[in-house]
Amino acid sequence: MNFAAPLGLLALGLALPVIALYLLKVQRRSVPVAYLRLWEELVQETQRRSFFERLKRWLSLLVQLLILLGLVLALADPRRSTRPEDARQVVLVLDASASMQTREADGRTRFAHALDAIRAEIEAKDPADAFALVVASDRVEVRCPFEQGRLRLLSALEGVQVTGRALDAPKALAFARAIARDQPHAEVLVIGDGSAGQVVQEAGVATLSTASLTASSADKSAEAKPGPKGPAPLRLLLVGQARENVAILRFSARKNRSLGTDYVLARVKNFGEAPRELNLELSLDGQVQKVLPRTLPPGGELSERLQLDLPQGGVLRLELTSEGAQLFDAQPFDALSLDDVAYAVVQPARKHRVLVVAPSAAALEPYRVAFAAMEEQIDPTSQALSAAEFAALAPAERQADLIVCSGVLPEGLPRGAALLLAGQALPSFLPATEQAREEQPVVWDWQREHLLNRYLNWRDLPLPPARPLQLQAGEALVQSYEGALIAAFNHQGRQVLWLGFDPGSRLFPFRLAFPLLLRNALAWFEQE
């Protein structure tokens, strides 16, 4: 027999004052009477009954001592003794992932129910058993190592909070079994919802319900005897009931500054067993941008791709609402509100810094004309420079969103800078072979859907003499019968756009087509 609270036995000391009160005799008073014979019969009757009075008095003392003993035993909490060699070592793994925030029908979260289940396990443990408390999400935290005292275990449970992260169940189970490996009678008890249960059940573990908490410690010990040198056995205690849930899986916004467009992607899935009608509400800094009514079948998933014009930037908010609900309605959409709202930061529009390098100042004039037609996109710090002027720039001044090299490849190009190479010899770092010069190149085909060719009809443009390429890598965007006239490369961490001709050699098509080509090139570089 063991006592859960042996200090309660100190209350047995209260028996001493109880016995002392019974042993105290009341001092008799002397009272004068007129005639003593009148009291003799009463004195004789009292003496005859004194034995039975004393007996009743001692029985009363015994009853009160028994009552005191019962109270003391209740305080000491006697338990059936367990031999030390039979004591269990239990690793309690508490699921603290985001899904544990789901509210059940009683209004309490699954995490609150899990905490109650752990408290019940701790209260029902044998005094010789040692419990360890582990809190798991995408990371594992040991809140308490193996401990026999209930108070310390319950104290370690205080302050545990549910997280907004996913559960890495294999990682948590591997950790729990690792710390239980060297224990003689170890077991792992996982308390969580379906997200934990799926992984644990795949290991062939029986699922328990909250009713299993009434089982005795002896029964649990018998169920969880590990084999010799085998892994610690697992038990799973599921909390919460399956409920309908629709979740935002992904929400992102990306700005294409060259086209002045914001691309928004939203992915939503219905994890329930019934179809759901819902609204996808998009708002920017509290102002509604779009409301998209949708219907999701059971297990269905949808991907919405939108193009918005949000030059001012801000915080974009996506919320799932029911039909007829108002924006920012306080009524939750479903039991797990955490995945019903998502945010994305939209960057404000900015202009691009472009550097153009040519052999001489005369060759730069067409590019200055093109810059004038693109004031809404070209940063004022953009420059058209000769090769000598570029070489004189400080390294920080050579940084740009795009460097256009027309007829020359200057020294000192920033590492990883996006390059547009036009009308020059093929650099050695590009994986291609230059073909014979074509004086009047004829466009055979081009990738009409490619971003670089947007709004351009290459067959109607009179191209200047060109050097086509045979590519070992990269992508041919415009082709003649001899090879690629325009090609795109992503080689060794550098993005390069190759033009096999000098666009500035013929001013009329250049003034019309080059601003479009430059816009498309900026958009393509940014997208890549």
Describe the protein's architecture and organization.
There is one protein chain. This protein is of the alpha/beta class. It contains ten helices and 25 strands. Helix 1 packs antiparallel against helix 2 (37-76), helix 3 (110-124) runs antiparallel to helix 4 (150-157) and helix 8 (365-372) crosses helix 10 (507-527).
- Which term fits the overall shape? elongated
Mean pLDDT: 80
Helix count, DSSP H or I runs of 4 or more residues: 10
Strand content: 25-35%
Termini separation: 73 Å
The chain-level structural class is alpha/beta
Please outline the major beta sheet. 8 strands, mixed
| Radius of gyration, whole Å | 42 Å
> Uncertain segments of ≥5 residues (pLDDT<50)?
205-229
Strand order within the widest beta sheet: 17-16-18-19-25-24-23-21
Residues in helix, %: 25-40%
The beta-strand count equals 25
